Amino acid sequence: MKPILDEAVYCHVGFVVDGQPYVVPTGFGREGRTLYIHGSSASRMLRALSGGLPVCVTVTLLDGLVLARSAFHHSINYRSVMVLGVAHLLDGEEKLRGLRAITEHMVRGRWEDVRPPTEQELKATSVLRLEIDEASAKVRQGFTIDEGDDLSLPYWAGVVPFALVPGAAVPEPRLPSHVRLPRYLRGYKRRPERRDIG
Amino acid sequence: MKPILDEAVYCHVGFVVDGQPYVVPTGFGREGRTLYIHGSSASRMLRALSGGLPVCVTVTLLDGLVLARSAFHHSINYRSVMVLGVAHLLDGEEKLRGLRAITEHMVRGRWEDVRPPTEQELKATSVLRLEIDEASAKVRQGFTIDEGDDLSLPYWAGVVPFALVPGAAVPEPRLPSHVRLPRYLRGYKRRPERRDIG
Hints:
The structure is a homodimer.
Chain A: H1 2-7, E1 11-17, E2 20-26, E3 28-31, E4 34-38, H2 40-48, E5 53-67, E6 75-89, H3 92-106, H4 119-123, E7 127-131, E8 134-140, E9 158-166, E10 170-171
Antiparallel strand pairs in A: 1-2, 1-5, 3-4, 4-7, 5-6, 5-9, 6-7, 6-8
């Protein structure tokens, strides 16, 4: 479960307002069994709920399209984690800790190489905390499961693999030329090693 | 809005059961202003609700990490669409139409090159229909918005772009060698052309 959470760049947070579900993408970080979620859209809702916000945080990694000889057996290879629970809005020291986890989740080593947030910036940011207590992982991998007569049909079957590939880092135009690309960004990648189809 | 929906390989569907939101990844297709959603997990819930299921369908395309000189201005470049509404479970002719849209969304041209579903397979599949009436797009692009004194800080700033890249199609091991890779899979890609950072 943790490798899936850690490979994902962002998550989708689901929450409910007046019976209507909302699903918004946002940044997050993990520290042990705690998820820190960048509040953005969810935070306004949360402020209205004093006791905390029932949420679902889902992370999905796309691995490939599964083409089968039959329409029925077409599928998608993916790895997904769903965490259910109640999220709480953070303050003070814990909020800072959450921001650190979220920043480090983006790029490991980054937190020590930025200007830390001011009091005012901290106030303008929302961080939610969610414990990973009720969580499930779902993984689909491998080829199609066509069977029987279908195997002799003249239709192509197989997998079109997908990978989320980081390109070369592009410096901001105003960056002075003496500020070099930091070591932690050289050879940056999310996935520790290439996975097989199967 | 439509280019974002069409580029996305899958969506996240949010729905509510007893006040608890759930967010599950699933395949989908679009035909005009109609979304067809592959039912999977949501369908069991839906059967319990005769009148339809309030859902939120969110699609997110990740474009890059935005690194700023200040922790506060770190961000993610993305394009996202959120569709709100009530989903209905389909049957018969309309279900088949939905499956066609979902299959064609995976790979254009595929529906004419597979064995169509049998009656029994159709029964074992769930397709939801959702009209794109209440929808919003959110896009973040470009570099950081660091300002003032921050611009002279010695920290690297810029964008690490991301692209979802399809690899070479891998034939299923049982595929006879005379079944060649179909034309619609050669040079397969989701994104019509490479986008700029800005």
